[in-house]
Every structure is written in C-alpha cells, then in structure tokens.
Write a structure and sequence with these properties.
The chain has 107 residues and is mainly β. The chain contains no helices and 8 strands.
C-alpha cells in the first residue's frame, strides 16, 4: 500500500530539506521527502521505496508518475499548514488513519 502525506502549505517549502513521517497505529511508518524541483521519494519501515513527482492542484498536493507502478497512478490530499514539530491526522490512499509529523532534517 502506498502512503502519502501533504507537505506544508507555504509553497510546500517547509517540507524541503525536512522529513514528513506517516505513523501507523501498529508502529509502521513511511518517510516522505519533497524536493524543490518537484521530485518526491518515500521509504517504508519494511524497506520498500517509491519515487515520483509532486504537483499543486488548487489546495491539494498530488503525487504523480509513481515508480514502481502502484495500484493508483496518482494520489491527491489537502495541503496542511505545518511547521517543524507539528503533527496532524491524515489518511493513506486506502483510507487508513495515519499521524503525520514534520521533523527537521532528513531522517
């Protein structure tokens, strides 16, 4: 399953150079990395990796061109205004609850 998180609203810039971690209730996690050039990468606690691109569509951030190919070709989620240290509830593409956290630096 693919898990996506929304980067901070201020032009997505608060996510650059930092890490968004999606925490699942049972302890699994996904780390999300957003780059200023529009590239995106994710790493799961079980070792899987994903890459793609992010684009802003209205008040949503969308992940597209996902590799390796997933069950979904794109995923959009509302942008969230967040600063380093903030947490917020969200859902993954399968509708499962996650707790997102914006942490300083790359983890």
């Amino acid at each position: 399953a693919v898990v996506m998180a929304a980067p901070a609203q201020a032009g997505v810039s608060d996510a650059f150079g930092n890490t968004i971690i999606s925490h699942y209730p049972r302890g699994e996690w996904v780390k999300h990395y957003f780059e200023p050039d529009g590239t995106y990468a994710a790493a799961w606690s079980d070792g899987r990796r994903l890459s793609g691109r992010w684009v802003i569509e209205g008040q949503k951030v969308c992940l597209v061109e996902l590799r390796p190919r997933q069950l979904i070709s794109r995923f959009c989620t509302p942008m969230v205004q967040a600063s380093v240290g903030d947490t917020w509830p969200s859902r993954d593409p399968l509708g499962r609850s996650v707790r997102n956290e914006l942490v300083a630096g790359r983890r």
